[in-house]
């Protein structure tokens, strides 16, 4: 709230906006959301009112998640772990992190894409990116879903609309040299994270954690996994190989072919692709903090189930993951469990049966609006 107070006092240079937690490192929509909360909570002093607002945000997000699960024909028992996470309750109701708003945007985008509202889905995903850069982990998947679902021209225009959205949101901060400060702070890809706060790589030494080779290795692994998923799963509605996909979408798709491809972008394909992309990014992240569980907790039961897991498999892995994220501060054991469970879920996303094998009720899977 100290950062918001500087914004309300007229400061527009991102490099100058700071507070007890450090400099402002989030995009513009984060500032606008917390400015609204600043006024709604008596300049940040009415914590109870803030918790009530975030309780409503939690219930709304959970309702959207339930709706996404319903559209893929998930069994009712799979809904149980979605509402039981103590860490998720802490993130939303106690810590009041901006990740909560970004998570709502992510799942709302998934829901809209499941309903074949391609432009709206991309736009809402862009709103989430305006709150926190973590949403960028889903960018490859969202781009491929929108491109194959809506066609080349509409896919490109959706991407342009997201860029314009961010330019509009950033306008108050773009005057003169301040513009460079804004993009450098809000989208800082070279940000350094402290070893003492890491949840996922505690079991490696501080020297390894801070080394350039470790960072480059994770980046190369991230790229390799994305390419593997693109080739094996994410372009299958339109192409057999990546080279064929590039030829098809660099040129113009024949009239009528785009409609046939679009019909293969089912609600299940959307969930598989977007959640798989986010999970890959989480696995390859150099440092995860506790609030990052917001992007993970509600994806886990689905990914474990999609690979053919029954109640025992899903609930045991869910419980192990929940435990590993509740340990504070993280330990060698807890961080090993965090990375292991992330790796398990990435593998589950890769080996899940083809979407054609999933046949949810026609009133859900076949509904397009």
Automatic annotation (TrEMBL):
Pfam families: ALG3 (PF05208). It catalyses: an alpha-D-Man-(1->2)-alpha-D-Man-(1->2)-alpha-D-Man-(1->3)-[alpha-D-Man-(1->6)]-beta-D-Man-(1->4)-beta-D-GlcNAc-(1->4)-alpha-D-GlcNAc-diphospho-di-trans,poly-cis-dolichol + a di-trans,poly-cis-dolichyl beta-D-mannosyl phosphate = an alpha-D-Man-(1->2)-alpha-D-Man-(1->2)-alpha-D-Man-(1->3)-[alpha-D-Man-(1->3)-alpha-D-Man-(1->6)]-beta-D-Man-(1->4)-beta-D-GlcNAc-(1->4)-alpha-D-GlcNAc-diphospho-di-trans,poly-cis-dolichol + a di-trans,poly-cis-dolichyl phosphate + H(+). One of its GO terms (molecular function) is dol-P-Man:Man(5)GlcNAc(2)-PP-Dol alpha-1,3-mannosyltransferase activity. The keyword Glycosyltransferase applies. The lineage of its organism: Eukaryota, Fungi, Dikarya, Ascomycota, Pezizomycotina. GO terms for cellular component: endoplasmic reticulum membrane. PANTHER family: DOL-P-MAN:MAN(5)GLCNAC(2)-PP-DOL ALPHA-1,3-MANNOSYLTRANSFERASE, NOT56 - RELATED. Pathway: Protein modification; protein glycosylation. It comes from the Eukaryota. Keywords: Endoplasmic reticulum, Glycosyltransferase, Membrane, Transferase, Transmembrane, Transmembrane helix. The chain crosses the membrane at residues 21-41, 47-69, 90-110, 122-147, 159-183, 203-230. This is Dol-P-Man:Man(5)GlcNAc(2)-PP-Dol alpha-1,3-mannosyltransferase. Its EC number is 2.4.1.258. It is found in: Endoplasmic reticulum membrane. The keyword Protein transport does not apply. It is an enzyme of class 2 (transferase). Dol-P-Man:Man(5)GlcNAc(2)-PP-Dol alpha-1,3-mannosyltransferase that operates in the biosynthetic pathway of dolichol-linked oligosaccharides, the glycan precursors employed in protein asparagine (N)-glycosylation. The assembly of dolichol-linked oligosaccharides begins on the cytosolic side of the endoplasmic reticulum membrane and finishes in its lumen. The sequential addition of sugars to dolichol pyrophosphate produces dolichol-linked oligosaccharides containing fourteen sugars, including two GlcNAcs, nine mannoses and three glucoses. Belongs to the glycosyltransferase ALG3 family. InterPro entries: Glycosyltransferase_ALG3. It is a multi-pass membrane protein.
